[in-house]
Amino acid sequence: MARANRHFIPGGVWHITHRCHKKEFLLKFAHDRTRFVMWLREARKRFGIQILNYAVTSNHVHLLVKDRGDAGAIPSAMQLVAGRLGQEYNHRKHRKGAFWEDRYHATVIETGEHLRRCLVYIDLNMVRAGVVKHPGDWVHGGYHEIQGQRRRNTILSLDVLAGAVEAGSREDLARAHREWIEEALSTDGHKREDLWSKSIAVGER
After folding, report:
1. pTM across the whole model
2. Which terminus, N or C, of the chain has the lesser number of Cβ atoms within 10 Å?
3. How far is CA 10 from the centre of its chain?
4. Phi, psi for 81 (deg, rounded to 5)
5. How far apart are CA 67 and CA 44, in angstroms?
6. How confident is the model over 150-196, as pLDDT tens digits?
7. Rounded Cα distance, 176 and 18, in Å
């Protein structure tokens, strides 16, 4: 399969999806999902990416990230996280072969309303999968940190996120975020939409 072309917009916000090889459930154990988040935290330190939200499922991951103008930051971060996690898993399981699909997919997301919708889409991933009824029931995602419920080992750039979704302060962000989630749960807003993970860009025309 031909590799997708890479595109770059300095300072852009990106929705990144990366699936396990052949959609296998290689992230079914909490240990491996936790290690993914640990390596993501390390990548943030090394390459200066700003993580706005994430969800680690049993066979794929969602990331909402913003770079600081360095075209190599996000690819380097993904290479570190994906490479180290795959190596650890294969070593522990005495396994050989690819852990991930060939390449991750990156969709640039316009700030404001479109970013708010993408944020909620990521949060509701495990609700769509039927694993939980509310994103607060899934620990391997950004919901609790956005809500200010996680004080240690934090990973999100909440001030950047608040500005990008036009929420003002962290408190305003948490309050609005709860409202967006509840609205989506009470309507069809939690259903799968391919545009968030298969498009090149999502925003106004």
Report:
1. 0.90
2. C
3. 19
4. -65, -50
5. 10
6. 778 899 999 999 999 999 899 999 999 999 999 999 986 566 677 66
7. 28
Q: Which residue has the tokens 């994430």?
A: 54
Name the phi and psi angles at 65, rounded to 5. -130, 155
| All domains of the chain in start order, with CATH | 13-195 (3.30.70.1290)
Element (H, E) at 61: strand 60-66
Say which residues have a Cβ less than 8 Å from residue 46's Cβ, sequence separation at least 6.
Answer: 76, 77, 80
Q: Which amino acid, 67?
A: D
Q: What is the C-alpha R_g of the chain?
A: 16
Q: Which residues, 6+ apart, have CB-to-CB distance to 109 below 8 Å?
A: 12, 13, 14, 15, 64, 115, 118, 201, 202, 203
DSSP string for residues in 9-45: -TT-EEEEEEEBGGG--TT-SHHHHHHHHHHHHHHHH
> Among residues 156, 179, 177, 159, which one has the least CA distance to residue 168?
159
What is the 3-state composition of the chain as percent helix, strand, coil, each rounded to the nearest 5?
Answer: 45, 15, 40
